[in-house]
From TrEMBL:
Superkingdom: Eukaryota
One Pfam family, short name: RPC5_C
Domain (DNA-directed RNA polymerase III subunit RPC5 C-terminal) ranges: 425-666
GO biological process: tRNA transcription by RNA polymerase III
A cellular-component GO term for this protein: RNA polymerase III complex
Gene3D superfamilies, A to Z: Ribonuclease H-like superfamily/Ribonuclease H
Lineage: Eukaryota, Metazoa, Chordata, Craniata, Vertebrata
Protein name: RNA polymerase III subunit E
Length: 666
């Protein structure tokens, strides 16, 4: 059957309404239009709406080109669209005399309503508005007559521009609209032309030699009729997302590394379930030990897999090497206990809270009044089934523990295990302490009795009231309550775990403060030359980061107390200024200790000193106050550049007020 056809055979079911017109594009046979009559006498037809639509489209004039000649919407246009582009799986079949004749289809069209009449109505509306706004002013016409006309000649179109224009959507639409329509004639179901066209649906070579018996099996014949759909190429997703189908195309080692990097903690049985069925468990065990460590019978991804070399923390910028040491310590603690305390972890590894929280969230969940508990229950079945792997991992953890003890200067005996408390070790320690106290009680009572007798003689026999000396708030870091069992004083390594107040040779009731090392002086000097204004808490935070970046066993790890840190600051041409914080301030004691660079040998030191004196009277000031005071003290030599530099080095702004760095409360 050739195109364009001169007839159109329609299904009788579709011919419920009269067909006004049928047309098809001459060169694009997939574009078909049908104009179907609307039953205007139906009780469901709104006559007023139909008349309004016809009026909007055609206006009040009566012309042959009108869309609705009867002044009423009495027809509707249906336009074809391709319902599918691949018709190789579809066919038209007809059954006659026990024979099934199948004819392949070249295309399938779906007819949908066209609303082109609404576009015509919009054009009419715009034309009427233009006519109303244009007016008939003769002056305007005269102005138009004398208006100068500029003639321009278009440039010759390049080949590249021509190709873009031809491939544009507007050009294709215009070309399609310019193509002429071919009007079709309808032939009924029993018409002779329809019978003739239906003959093409029957096979004409039934008796030929080409028709052989079916020798295919049912499965092969079904595959010929309905070939399997070719798998579409999977789109490339983001680098951090991988489907299971894509995952199984990778080598076994890469599969396990990708799974562990995303899941982080996994039992061995779950890992085998995610891999391709039939994978050798021995090969999996060999690969898993390269990217994970055994913790309580479960596999936890190694730190260097999550934090590759030359990377850093997204929260604090700490280098990957330091992050790996801190995370390894957290993993090692979970090999000792089911639960750990976050404060204990942070006090030892000395990393920012955000990084510590990330470590814990990788492998644990928080429990009320129990700290952080390991994410999965202990897998004893794996340890029993693979004792050689468990023993190898135990030896590996022993080596990691020895390295961690050197880095963080702690001993395993210093960490009181909850498991030990449950098994009675803690009770044994408590009993030993009671025995020592009971053994020393007679000598203590004797000493106390002697003191009472001496005090009674001095006070007329009324007895002595023992008054406890309060601990100075200015030196909270040297008090007995600040000493950690592992020798850390408020989170800093201390040379002695004993209470400083027990040494009578110090004027402050403690041991003499040692002199700062050259490394500590260099750290303080360089830090304050960059920052200019720092609170004690910020200095300690920066110092912790500096300690974490040093190699294991460095001399700076020892004998650094808060008193030594403050003395080193004061010896680095810095001063502590008293900022009058408000009474309702929530700042901690370390946050209210503000240290500033006082002298650097620059002429700009005088500007900073004037600024510090201003903030010693008020903790927040306005810019004009600072400007006025600088002008009074230094004269007109203070420029805007000096003012901007001063505020940038020493202050932060919020709500039009300026604060010293570190003193702005959230």
């Amino acid at each position: 059957m050739t195109w364009p056809p001169q007839s159109l055979d329609l299904n009788p079911i579709e011919m419920v309404w009269d067909v006004f017109d049928r047309r098809v594009k001459e060169k694009q046979p997939t574009i078909v239009e049908l104009e179907i009559a609307i039953n205007t006498l139906s009780p469901n037809y709104c006559r007023s709406k139909g008349e309004q639509i016809a009026l909007n489209v055609d206006g009040t004039t009566s012309e042959d080109s009108n869309t609705y000649s009867v002044k009423m919407m009495d027809k509707q246009t249906f336009t074809s669209i391709q319902s599918t582009t691949n018709t190789s799986r579809y066919a038209a079949a007809i059954f006659r005399k026990g024979e099934l004749h199948i004819t392949p289809l070249q295309g399938i069209l779906q007819m949908r309503p066209s609303f082109s009449y609404l576009d015509k109505a919009d054009c009419k509306h715009r034309e009427r508005e233009a006519a109303n706004e244009g007016g008939d002013s003769s002056q305007d016409e005269a102005d138009e007559d004398v208006k100068a006309v500029t003639v321009r000649f278009s440039r010759p179109e390049s080949e590249q521009a021509r190709q873009r224009r031809i491939q544009s959507y507007d050009f294709l639409q215009k070309k399609q609209a310019e193509e002429s329509w071919v009007h079709l004639h309808y032939h009924g179901l029993n018409d002779g032309r329809s019978d003739h066209e239906r003959l093409y649906l029957y096979c004409q070579t039934m008796g030929g030699s080409d028709n052989t018996e079916l020798v295919k099996t049912p499965k092969e014949y079904l595959a010929m009729l309905m070939p399997p759909v070719a798998e579409e190429k999977m789109p490339v997703g983001p680098s951090n997302m991988l489907s299971m189908a894509q995952l199984r195309t990778l080598p076994l080692g890469d599969q396990i590394k990708t799974l562990m990097k995303n899941v982080k903690v996994m039992p061995f049985a779950n890992l085998m379930g995610l891999l391709t069925p039939g994978t050798d468990s021995t090969a999996v065990l060999r690969c898993i030990q390269q990217v994970a460590l055994l913790v309580q019978g479960n596999w936890v991804v190694k730190s260097d897999v999550l934090y590759p070399k030359n990377s850093c923390s997204p929260h604090s910028g700490v280098p990957a090497e330091v992050l790996c040491r801190g995370r390894d310590f957290v993993m090692w603690r979970f090999t000792q206990d089911r639960s750990v305390m976050r404060k204990e972890i942070a006090a030892i590894i000395k990393l920012p809270p955000e990084d510590v929280k990330d470590f814990l969230e990788h492998m644990a969940v928080p429990r009320i009044n129990r700290g952080w508990e390991f994410l999965l229950p202990s897998d004893g079945s794996f340890i029993k089934k693979h004792p050689d792997v468990a023993q190898r991992q135990h030896m590996l953890w022993m080596g990691i523990q020895s390295k961690l003890e050197k880095v963080f200067t702690f001993s395993k005996d210093d960490l009181v295990s909850k498991k030990d408390l449950e098994t009675g070790v803690g009770e044994q320690r408590l009993k030993a302490a009671h025995e020592r106290a009971r053994h020393n009680q007679p000598s203590l009572e004797k000493d106390l009795s002697a003191r009472r007798q001496g005090g009674a003689g001095a006070s007329g026999g009324t007895g002595v009231r023992v008054k406890e000396e309060p601990v100075s708030e200015d030196e909270p870091m040297d008090s007995c309550s600040s000493v950690h069992p592992n020798g850390l004083v408020n989170g800093y390594p201390s040379s002695s775990a004993t209470c400083p107040a027990s040494n009578p040779h110090n004027g402050h009731g403690g041991t003499p403060t040692p002199s700062p090392s050259p490394e500590l002086r260099d750290f303080v000097w360089n830090t304050f030359r960059k920052q200019h204004v720092l609170t004690l808490s910020e200095v300690k935070r920066l110092f912790n980061l500096h300690l974490a970046s040093l190699p294991p066993g460095h001399s700076l790890f020892h004998s650094i107390s808060d008193r030594l840190l403050q003395d080193t600051i004061l010896m680095s041409q810095c001063k502590q200024i008293l900022v009058p914080f408000p009474a309702q301030s929530t700042a901690a004691a370390d946050e209210q200790k503000v240290f500033v660079v006082w002298e650097t040998g620059e002429t700009f030191d005088k500007h900073r000193q004037v600024l510090y004196e201003i903030f010693m009277k008020n903790y927040r000031v306005r810019r004009n106050v600072i400007q006025t005071r600088l002008t009074q003290e230094l004269g007109d030599q203070t420029t805007k550049a000096d003012m901007d530099r001063l505020l940038k080095e020493c202050c932060v702004s919020l709500g039009g007020m300026w604060y010293l760095k570190g003193t702005l409360q959230s």
